Amino acid sequence: MPADAHVETQRRQASRHHAILELAALDKSDFGTVLRKILMIDARELDLERVNCWTLDDRSIRCVAGYLRTSNTFEADTVIEATSCPTYFRALADDPLILAEDARTDPRTCEFTDGYLVPLGITSMMDVPIWVRGRLWGVVCHEHVGPARRWTDADRDFAISIGHIVSMAVEARERADAERIARFSEFFIGVLGHDLRNPLATISAAADMLREGESDLRRRHAMQRITRNVALMSRMIEQLLDFTRIRLGAGIPIQRGTTDVAALARQVVSDLPPDLVSRVDVDVHGNATGAYDTDRIWQAVSNLVSNAFNHGSPSGRIRVVVDGDDPRKVIVKVSNPGVVAEELRRVLFDPFQSQRLRDRERNDGLGLGLYIVREIVAAHDGTIGVTSEAGEVTFTMCLPRPH
């Protein structure tokens, strides 16, 4: 081997070794991000135009992510049915390591010639398996554009290492998914075992008092407790339904109509118990009418006001500002005396992290209120944020007005 070629081979080997170490050390908690990084480095080290990651089942293969090196872009979701390439599927079942120097004539891959290889200029293919917990999860497909390429042992070994690293990322994602499911299960068990049981116990005790024929004053107080706790339970149930819809991917459903956000804010405040109404100031600027979902915006404002009472200073005043001066948007600000620690502010809209960090003794709900507010605002293409400055916490909800 000429000296220059030997030096180049050593350089390439060192580069690939470094790349494998770099990929193995990546934080694999974000599967999509790490997979794109793997494919980019794979294409660079093997000097390939296209590298794709495919999932595999008995009926089809689907592209999870495909990297196009020249344009530095990604594609996904291409599906190839097993019925259209049965020989390829049988080849994968026999040996998922496929090195096809001439992919257009190789019996394992020639079924792709007219519909895939020729249109994209692909001449050579190398598939390596992705094994996850003893099952063939998919393949990393290396696609060479240009003159037919002979895959070397070094190419094969590097590609197999890439398949192992992808399998590590898949396993990390599956572990994270399992942990999320476990947290959801614990959350709902806690809801059923504590949060819903307490208001039920209160209602039961109040009903017993009414049956015992106590004085009119005692009856009145009991009825007030029943009404308050029924409202609390109704709110908790609605939040659980919304939470379930969101987690299932359905999002918050909205029905837009002409909505006066200022009128809704005043209604939210007027519906508070008399001792709380006196602690809230409502300030309105401009025209606060827009095409929003009336019930959902009422819910969002109500959750923000409830949050202000639950976590603000016990005797402090609450300020609600509705600003409609900008014809492009309506802004709602809800402020209360208090301080939010930086640690909490970063996760305030997360129903699990924020609930863990908050003072549960001062919370009469599930800790889903702010999370649902964020989803309602997002469904209206808006934004919500929080600031904690000069002893005051302010939530700012920005609702664009549709054209």
Which key phrases capture this entry?
403 residues, alpha+beta, Heat Shock Protein 90, seven-stranded antiparallel β-sheet
Characterize the structure shown:
Mean pLDDT is 82; it is low at 359-363. This protein folds into three domains: 3-177, Beta-Lactamase (2-Layer Sandwich), CATH 3.30.450.40; 196-247; 257-400, Heat Shock Protein 90, CATH 3.30.565. The protein is of the alpha+beta class. Helix content is 49%, strand content 23%. The strands form three sheets. Strands 1, 2, 3, 4, 5, 6 and 7 form a seven-stranded antiparallel beta sheet that branches. The longest helix has 43 residues, at 153-195. It has helices at residues 3-24, 31-46, 86-94, 113-120, 153-195, 197-211, 216-247, 261-270, 274-277, 294-311, 342-345, 353-357, 369-379, and strands at 50-56, 60-68, 73-75, 79-81, 98-100, 122-132, 135-145, 257-260, 280-286, 289-292, 318-324, 329-337, 383-389, 392-400. The chain starts with a helix and ends with a strand.
